[in-house]
Each structure stands twice: as structure tokens, then as C-alpha cells.
Amino acid sequence: MFAIKFRFLTGRYHATPWDRQVNEGAIEWPPSPWRIYRALLACWHLKGGDIEEAQMRALIEQLVSVQPHYHIPDGVVAHTRHYMPLGALDGKTSQDKTTKILDAFLHVKREEGNEYQPLWMYWPDLSLSSALQDTLSSLLEKMGYLGRAESWVEASFVPMPSNIPEMNVCPVEDEGALPEGDEKIRLLQAMTPSDYGLWRERVKERREAQDLFIKQQKAYEKGKDVSKVKLTKKDLQKIEDALPIGMFEALQLDTADIHKDGWQWPPGSVWVDYRRPKEAMRPRRSYALANRKRVVSPTVARFAVADQVLPRLLEAIEVGGGLHRAFVSYADKMVEGGSIKTIPTVLSGCDDDKNALKGHRHVFILPESSGRQRRGHISHLTLYARMGFDEEARRVLERFSKLSWSGRTLQLVLLGVGRPEDFAGFKEEAGQCVLFEKSKVWTSVTPFVATRHPKTKKSGAPKCDERGWQIGSPKHDLERLLLAYLREDEPALCIESIEEEACVMGGKEVAWYKFRTERVRGGGGRRSRASPKGFRVTFSKPVRGPLAVGYGAHFGLGMFRPIDTGDE
To answer: Model pTM?
Structure first.
């Protein structure tokens, strides 16, 4: 047995998980085994010229054969925001143009001696030869940072640890219930050399079959004999060259090349379930001050959905309603445990007398499908409440981390709380939320369901206003609800029905009627008999989101997204 001790010299650890974007504010904690192995290989390439490849290969093959355990120190999640010149990022854009960068990190607490608490990584069932111990110790002494370059670290090898703290992050041994106070997380691990060999053969066979099918398809379209089509030696060699020969080589692939070759995960990697204390990622409570006397409550809380199979946006109202019920249930348990006094009104939607709040002041749950790879699946759940989240509501949000949905458990990660302008932006792939941007033109992202019925005269003819709009029709009802929601006297400049009655999701058109448009388990709210529709709304001046109206608007229906017209 042996351990590695990491001490962060500035008390800060910066590292983004492989499957997340840096501006999402997610932190890989503890560092995944995959990150540690690559850090050791980087030290070997840059500073370990006296270590032979055979020795390095033997060390890596030994390390990947066993799942390590961790002891993570106490810490809090924090972040800073910077406006970086775009020219500094791509070398082409003018330095006058800037973009907001979110720098999230974990701040480690200090020990009694004023040093920062260390991170321990422990291999309880692995023994290294004296030569490999010397190699590992030499590499760790040369390691200057872990994660991003600003995470300065001092690493050391501990051959026979006897006084290290109890391990609090361990692999999940079975699928049973986790210990009280723990949560499940995923860390990226490397395959063993034997597993990698089997995986490589399967991938190779699959790629050969795919390439052969493509060649046969092209031959068929040209009227050629498909049975005579075969892969050439050049085709086979191309597939062979695209797959690293072994696990040792796969760990040394450049990240840019991994993305360029279209790999979703690094070749040879595998996700491993670990259990971690729920309190390990407590966000630092730091909210904007309107002045030194009065604290402005945040109105936005944004969660990332972390799961291998994400719910579809078509099920937005089901997920939104489920999250609302889960918040109320979780808050009720916190009341019983004495953590808070009452269920926060902003989350329940009811006052102390159980009467529904008026004026859309309580929380809106806005499911998002952000990023290029989401293909219509819910990647974020964003909460917006005009009345703001008070201290007790924030306490519920900070501790809430799981949502039961469709017989499974979705992991939720709180990215931060703040005001709409803190999250707004059209760069969804950079973690920004387009729903909080400003624009004159807005278009439906989930269907609008009217709350009133169309009016008719005694003769059966439509009853219309002075503009010829049928009173109570979806178009007429949408304008009425928008005026009430935005608290404006000036109606929208133009409201157009999206004629194709479909939205684009994952590159495909999906009809509005395919969305779930009724709340499960009952629930109030008026709705008309009219079918769900999509609209494009144009205002006379830019309006800041979010924009969600109609039946089920507090749970994901009737959502609009802005069109980037360049107007301020």
C-alpha cells in the first residue's frame, strides 16, 4: 500500500471535468485518476529525461490496475468573473471586444499550522517495487501544478502511510443504498491493459463494418455490384492508425487531437462511480450588494443535469413539475430536521395560509437544452423568481442534489445563484444562458398552451376585436399574458404563428403536439381546448428574459428564446 499527498500551495484547485465546459462552473473534485496519470506522464515528458520508457510504462500499468481511494479536505466552491479580450483568446479579434469568463475553483481550508489541508490519494491494495517507488517519487517531486496551471501543488510519495485520515471518497462497491450523507459521482479512470486490448478490437471491428457499409452504399448508388466491395489495405491501415496501440499510448494523446478525431470520451477511458460527502462542494455564499446597507436577493439559480441518459425537452413539464415537488418535499424534511423554519414561499408557490401566490412572483423552472451535443435533451434546469431567493430558500437550493425522474435518479449540480444579467449570453457552448438575454424578437422553444377559450357570437361566428383577432384565441391570449407578465402597457409589435407548427431539436423538426402539455398528478391551472402552438413575437424595444407564459409556464411550457438581432 502507498499514498500520494497533494498540498495546494495557494489553497485553490482549478480543474474542469472532461464532459463539461469551463464556463459552466463545474469542478472535478477529487481529481480523477485519469487526470493524475496524465499529469505524471506530462512530468515524465518535460522533466523526467532520466526515466526510461519501460519503467514509466510499468508504473502506469500498475497504477491503472487498482481503483484509488481519496481523502478530500474541507473546502468551499467559489468563482471569479473576468472580461477577457477576445483577441487574447483567438489572436484575431480586436482587443476592444471582450467576453465574460467564469473561473470556478475549490478553496481549501487551512489546518491549525496555517497550511492548507492536503488531499490524499490512496492505493490500499497495490504494492510497488522499490524501483517503481523511486520513479513515482521522482515524478511527484517535479510536479508543479495539478489541473489548470494556476493550481500550484506540492506532491509527495508516502510509501507506508500509517496516520493518514479516513478515506471519504471511495469506489461504489454495489448498487445498494449509499451511506447517509454521501452522494454518487463519476470519475474518469483508465482501463487496464487487458481491458483496453479487448475494447480496441471491438472498436476496430465496428469501424471496419461502418466504413464497409459506407463504401457499399456509394457503390449501390452508382449501380455497381455491392458484393465485390471490400476495404483496401489503406482503409484498414487508416482505422488501425486511428486507435492507440495500448493504454500507455492512449493516455498520451493530445486533447485537441481527441476532439478533432470526434471522440466523445478519451480512448481507453471509463467512468467509475464513487461516493463522496454531500457537503464536499458547498458553494461560497457571496451575493451582489445593491449598497452597503441592503442585500439584493438573487433571483436566479442554475443547475446542470449530470446523467448518462438525460430527459428530453419534450418532457419539460414533467421534469419541471417533478423538480417543484422534489423541492417542496426536501424543504419539508429540512423543516423536520430543524435546518430551516418553514418551507420557503418562493419554492412552494403558496403563502402561509396555503393560498396560491399571485403575479408570477414564485419560482419558474426553465428546462434548457444547451450546447452542441445535447440534441434536444435537458442539460440545465434554471430557476427564476422575481421575489428572490431568501436565506432559507438558498439553503434548500445549495443542499439539493438529486431528482427522481422516470424511475431513475438525476444528479443536479448547482452552478451558481445571481441575477439574470450574471448568466445572460448567446454563447450556450460557453455555459451562458440565452433565456436571460435581451432582444426584440423572441421565438417559442416549448409550446404555448392558451388559458382561455376562443369566444364566438350567438351565430357561431368568431367574436373578434378591432384588429380582427378572435378574442380568447391562442394569439389573443398570448398578447394578454405577455402584457401582464412584462408589466407593460404597450402591446407586442407583431405576433406570428410559426406556420410549420414545429421546433428544431437536434437538427430535426419536432411537431408541437409531441410535447407533453399536461401536468402529471393533477395540479391546477386553467387551459383551453386549443392545441399547443408556437409563436414568434416582435417587440418595439429589447426585452430581457426569461419569457414564459401560458398554462404550465412555471414548469417548462410556454418558454421563448431570444433571437440575436444585434440590438441593444
So the answer is: 0.56
